Amino acid sequence: MAVVVVVIMLVAAGIGYWSKGTPPPEQPELVQSKTLPLPDKPSIAVLSFDNLSGDPGQEYLSDGISQNIITGLSQFPGLFVIARQSSFSYKGKAVKVHEIASELGVQYIIEGSVQKSDSRVRVTAQFVDLMWGWTDDPEKSEKLSLEHAQSAVSLNNTDAEAHWVLGATLIYTGQGGKDALVAYERALALSPNNADLLAEYGWNIPYLGRAEEAVKLIRKAMRLNPVYPDWYGQALMFALYNARRYEEVVAVSKTIDIRHVMTLVVLAGSYAYMGQLDKAHLSAAQVMEINPDFTRSSWREGQVFSQQVALDHYMDGLRKAGLP
Description:
Shape: globular
Order of helices and strands: HEEHEHHEEHHHHHHHHHHH
CATH architecture of the domain at 2-129: 3-Layer(aba) Sandwich
Distance between the termini: 44 Å
Oligomer: single chain
C-alpha cells in the first residue's frame, strides 16, 4: 500500500538524521523510561491505528497497516523498533503517548487512523517526537522547543525543514514575528517548490497580520499539489476568514472535510459576519458536538495573533455565531 511506503520513508529519513554521527539533544527527564533505558540508536513504537470506519470488521485493515509499517521500519538496521505484540498492547486503552514511550523505552511514537468508505481508504498518521522538549510546564516546553529549533538550524543552515520548524515555533511561541518570516523565507529559498511548506506558511502568517499574502501562498501550494489534502483547504479557510473574505470561506468549505473544530469555528464566524445566523448556529452546534467543553475564553488563550485588532475580529465572529 503506497501510504505505508510513504510513512516508512518519511520516518526513516526524519529520525535517520541522528544516525549520521550527530548526537541527539539531552533527553528531558520525563522521556526516560522508569524501567527501560533508551537504546543507543533512534527507537520507535508503532501503535495500532484506530479504525474510524464504524465497522468492527475493518479492524484487520487498520491493524494490517500498522503491522506493515512495523515490518518496513524493522528492515532499517539503524532503528530500534518495538515488536507488534508490545506496541499493540495499548490498543483501545486511554494512555497518553508520553506514558507509552516511557513504558516502552522509546523516543518516537507513530499513531494514526484508518477510515474505509466504499472503495476509498483514508489513512492519517502522526509522528510524535518525545525527545523534543516534553514537559508538563507549558512555558518550559515552549522554551525548549525554540532552543531545539534554533539548534537544528545551527547544525545545518542549509536544511529547509529546520528553518521551517523554526519559523513555526517562533510564531506559536509568540517570540518573534519578524524572525519567523525570515526563517520561513529562508526555508522557501532552499525549497521553493515545497507545496506543504507553502501551505503551512500560509496557515501561520495570518497570525502576523498577513492574511492576503497567506491566501496567495496557499493557492500556490494547491497549484503545485493539485490533489492536495484537506488541510490545505482548512488553511485557506483560516486565511480567507482573517482576510474578511467570508463568501470564499463558505465556498472552500464545500470542497473539503470540515469536521474539525478549528475549521467549523471559522465557518461559523464567516456565516455570522455574513448575517446568516441560522447557518452560523448550525456550525456552532457542530463545534459543540465535537468538543462539548468548548468555550470562547479557552479558545482565545490558544490564539497567537500579534495584533489585537486581528484577535478581536477573529473572536467576535465566534461570539456572533453563538459559541459559548
